[in-house]
Amino acid sequence: MGAGSLIVLIICGIAFAGGGILLSKVLAQTSTNAQKGQAYECGVPTQGRSWIQLNVGYYLFAILFLIFDVELVFLYPWAVVVREAGWMAFLEIVIFLFILFLGFLYAHKKGALKWM
Amino acid sequence: MNEIVQFMLPELGLTVLLFVLLFVRIVGKLELAGQVCQLMNIALPILALCMWFMPAPEGAQFGGMMISSKLIVTEKLLLLVGTWIISLFSSPWLRGHRHPAEFYMLMLSTLMGIFFLLSSGDFLLFFLALELSAIPLAALCNFDLEKHVSGESAMKMIFSSALSSGILLFGISLLYGATGTLSFVQIPALLDGSPLQIMAFVMIFTGFAFKLSIVPFHFWTADVYEGAPVPVTAFLSVISKGSMAFVFVSALYTVFRPLSEIWYIAITLLAVISMTVGNLFAIRQQNLKRFLAFSSIAQVGYLLIGISGSSIDGMSSVVYFVLVYVFSNLAAFAVITLVSSATSRETIDGLKGFHASNPLLAWVLALALFSLAGIPPTAGFFGKFFLLTAGAAKWNSPVLIVAALNMVVSLYYYLRVVKAMFMDSSDDTMIRLTPNVSVQFALLLCTAGILLLGFYSPAYEWIRSLSFGI
Amino acid sequence: MENTVSILRQIPLNNYILLSTLLFCIGVIGVLSRRNAIIILMCVELMLNAVNLLLAAFSAYNSDPAGQVFVFFIMAVAAAEVAVGLAILMMVFRNTGTVDINALNKLKG
């Protein structure tokens, strides 16, 4: 079982796949018409451009999510050391989250979280 | 605890103001927010008085993260007064605006970033403060939401600041790798001029050059200044740039002190290019904000000459120059804000016949331009004089000759505006502008600053007693 | 932590520096040459992440946690920067209907 068997395997594989395709080309009857070019089994044809504009509101949610999501990265190192660091660390994270929460309230007040 | 509160008084004071604004904006009605913004005109000088009478103790806190000295307190005080003047003269523009509270929130958070930047003693705090002073500014540039140019200027601002802070960060990380520390105190002893350190320094220098708009990295400046609303342009060109000049000079004089032979060559070359290009481009500008943008690029060139002196005079002349620059440039911007919010004219031709209709305002603008050009009785002359004296200590006369020639060129374009105001007449005469009390006060403050600083020499001596050289 | 550091140290430091310099250069070239504003923001992210990689590698080699702390802050700040950038982009899109920065040519002189 050396490199020779691998070569034999590759040749057999190519012969099997290629032979099948070649055989079907030779034997099968082919016909071409316009209907064949259409999208397969997808109901009605599409109308207009497929690059449609998404509502701007979606981006707003994405941006808000991005900010609040990434700020939470600071909670991981905090969680590791909170037992040793004691109440002072707890107070600090409460202040941090309070500031984030104010930002969230501001977004709410501006109506950025309303689903249109 | 008490000590820390006194140490961080300026930053904590701004935080309280920000919280009040945010709280009012969340809970209250829009009119209430507008009234609270009027209160900011009183709250900012109160904070300045607190900083004056309870100055932060010298030394370091938070394990060397934050440092404070008398010089830093003075710089913060100067920038706070500058922000107060902007807040005073932006009131007529802000009155017609839908988001007054947001303007103050963004402006004060930028100022807080600048405060942290000035007292940072570690590259971590330095980077955070730099971003805090850059990101809200981009949002401020887009403050006229429905104007196309405003968005465009904000876009250019955020891209250039992101690019520059990326380059700066790469430099910081290389420096961290080469020295193994981020602390400003420990780095100088570990700098020996190895290739990695030189590379790191070049990157950090480039980042600074972007923020200060030194010439090869100045392309964003004119567009951003032109598109942004006038008070924001004033903030960008005076407060933001002044703070960067402070940080630049203290970083070069402390952190990069061992590399002074390298940066000396770099900044003398860049000074020559900045002055020349800034002045030559300023000649052909029609828009007043664009004109002031190129003039500020040229002013940065003069500033670099002062820094290149690398003596105690180098630092004190830079601080003094920014002190003068705050008053003279803000006086110019105050008048331009008035004109543009009343008549929406922002070109030099739009000022034709300004003296006939508004003699007093025309004189204030002329005085500001004289000070920017450096004509003797005004403070601007002494600012430039001290810069060149500091630069002359190194005996590089070619640079000084170029600077002197550039001042002649700059005189031409500053006087072009004065000529338009006083001598040209125009078909559509300007209406008579009536500035309200706060704008009058801002103009008075700036004029007094320009005139008094020119005659009151102890100011420079006092700054010099706080400064340090290499 | 110790385990991670030893894994990081199996690769020579030079390779980290080369890789992150390469990534950083790709980012810079992208910022300078691309015309689509969103792709420019992505390239800025690439620059910042190259810096992150470098900081983490130096931190592991210096046995000093300061670099890794720095990485956390860079991530948070990058998110804030992109959020503001995207918000500005939205305003520009509302005004002009495109995110191509060649359309940003009203300011010239």
Salient structural properties:
heterotrimer, B: 470 residues, mainly alpha, two-stranded antiparallel ribbon, C: 109 residues, Helix Hairpins, elongated
Structure description:
The complex is a heterotrimer of chains A (116), B (470) and C (109). By secondary structure, chain A is mainly α. In chain A, 65% of the residues lie in helices and 0% in strands. The mean pLDDT of chain A is 80. Chain B has one domain (2-466). Chain B has 22 helices and two strands. Chain B has helices at 2-7, 9-27, 30-53, 70-89, 91-95, 100-118, 123-132, 135-141, 148-179, 187-190, 195-212, 219-227, 230-254, 260-283, 288-308, 312-343, 354-357, 359-373, 379-392, 397-422, 437-455, 458-466, and strands spanning 59-61, 66-68. The radius of gyration of chain B is 21 Å and the shape is globular. Chain B starts with a helix and ends with a helix. In chain C, helix 2 (13-33) runs antiparallel to helix 3. The mean pLDDT of chain C is 87. Chains in contact: A-B, A-C, B-C. Chains B and C meet through helix 7, helix 8, helix 9 and helix 12 of B and helix 2, helix 3 and helix 4 of C.
Blueprint (SSEs and pairs):
The complex is a heterotrimer of chains A (116), B (470) and C (109).
Chain A lengths: L2 H25 L28 H16 L3 H11 L1 H23 L7
Helix pairs in contact in A: 3-4
Chain B lengths: L1 H6 L1 H19 L2 H24 L5 E3 L4 E3 L1 H20 L1 H5 L4 H19 L4 H10 L2 H7 L6 H32 L7 H4 L4 H18 L6 H9 L2 H25 L5 H24 L4 H21 L3 H32 L10 H4 L1 H15 L5 H14 L4 H26 L14 H19 L2 H9 L4
Antiparallel strand pairs in B: 1-2
Helix pairs in contact in B: 2-3, 2-6, 3-4, 4-6, 4-13, 4-16, 4-21, 6-7, 6-8, 6-13, 8-9, 9-11, 9-12, 12-15, 13-15, 13-16, 14-15, 14-20, 15-16, 15-19, 16-18, 16-19, 16-21, 16-22, 18-20, 19-21
Chain C lengths: L1 H7 L4 H21 L3 H26 L3 H31 L13
